[in-house]
Design brief:
- This protein is an alpha/beta fold.
- The protein has one domain: 3-Layer(aba) Sandwich (Rossmann fold), CATH 3.40.50.
- The protein has a 4-stranded parallel β-sheet, sandwiched between helices.
- Helix 1 crosses helix 3 and helix 5 packs across helix 6.
- 35% of the residues are buried.
């Protein structure tokens, strides 16, 4: 069984009823794979929906999270994130902390990140990612 973690942009596509993303999520679930909303994606999407006062989309978001589940952060992920930060800094290819923590969550658990921003994650060793868009 594989586990796919949705980045915030993929969650946004899902909420906006992007059929390709909806079909990809359903296909993975039917194939007995697990699909999770990433913990950082949860924060990013929720803060965005609250800030634009979008209660209907917030309801859809909560429904998606109830079905798929939301990943949880812990200190081991934060430790992995610190290592990723160091490596990216040494390579002079830093990315935002949210992306580093998203990657750390996936690397730490051996999960595959689903994102439409693949260029943000290319320099991270050990991260598996794909783009369903």
């Amino acid at each position: 069984m594989s586990v796919f973690v949705l980045d915030s942009n993929i969650v946004s596509f899902y909420i906006r009823q992007n059929q390709k993303i909806i079909q990809s999520v359903q296909g993975e679930l039917m194939a007995q794979n697990e699909v999770l909303v990433g913990p950082i994606a949860y924060y990013e999407v929720k803060r965005g929906l609250i800030s634009i006062n979008a209660p209907k989309r917030l309801e859809q978001f909560y429904a998606l999270c109830a079905v798929l589940g939301v990943g949880q952060l812990d200190n081991t992920i934060l430790d992995t994130g610190a290592e990723i930060y160091r490596n990216l800094r040494n390579q002079k290819s830093l990315i935002e902390d949210a992306d580093i923590l998203t990657a750390a969550f996936c690397v730490n658990h051996g999960f595959t990140l689903v994102t439409n921003n693949t260029s943000h994650f290319q320099a991270i060793t050990g991260l598996r990612f794909c783009d369903w868009v």
